[in-house]
Design goal:
151 residues; alpha+beta; Muramoyl-pentapeptide Carboxypeptidase, domain 2; two-stranded antiparallel sheet
Length: 151
């Protein structure tokens, strides 16, 4: 295993179910991947502290090359293209619980964007969106709401 930080590997950072797409991380984005994984280490440490037990994070999507990003239907401006975001779940917590725990400490943990997506996963990004109202949001099939909402 090729670890980027103590709990996150390069293999999981570039993992995809689209086997016909080469999603290798370009060398020039390695620093961004490191920033993202360092943010995720802070998140893991914080969650483990507040819930009183080790809380592993299971990434589902981090870096996406343009071809993969298009294949999954994501935006052309997604931070995943720059290796600056991760979609994930935390062991033993729902995405809603995670987002509610993180919402008050986004600045402290260096989270640029926090999204509760479809009630199924958490998206965290290093960079802040251009519009402040897009910083902490909930996305559902019905649309996008400011803040963390239960879905």
């Amino acid at each position: 295993m090729n670890y980027i930080t103590p709990h996150f590997t390069m293999e999981e950072f570039v993992a995809t179910n689209h086997r016909n797409i080469d999603n290798s991380l370009p060398l020039e984005l390695y620093g961004n991947a490191m920033q993202t994984c360092e943010m995720m280490e802070r998140i893991r440490t914080y969650l483990s502290k507040v819930v009183g037990r080790d809380t592993p994070i299971n990434p589902s999507s981090a870096y996406r090359c343009a071809q993969l990003n298009k294949a999954v239907g994501s935006s052309d401006t997604s931070d995943h293209l720059k290796a600056l975001a991760m979609d994930w779940n935390a062991q033993g917590l729902t995405p809603f619980e995670v987002c509610r725990l993180l919402e008050p400490v986004v600045n402290e943990l260096g989270i640029g964007q926090l999204i509760h997506e479809y009630g199924r996963w958490v998206h965290t990004g290093v960079s802040r969106p251009a519009k402040a109202v897009n910083r902490i949001i909930t996305i559902t099939n019905a649309g996008t709401d400011v803040g963390i909402k239960y879905v």
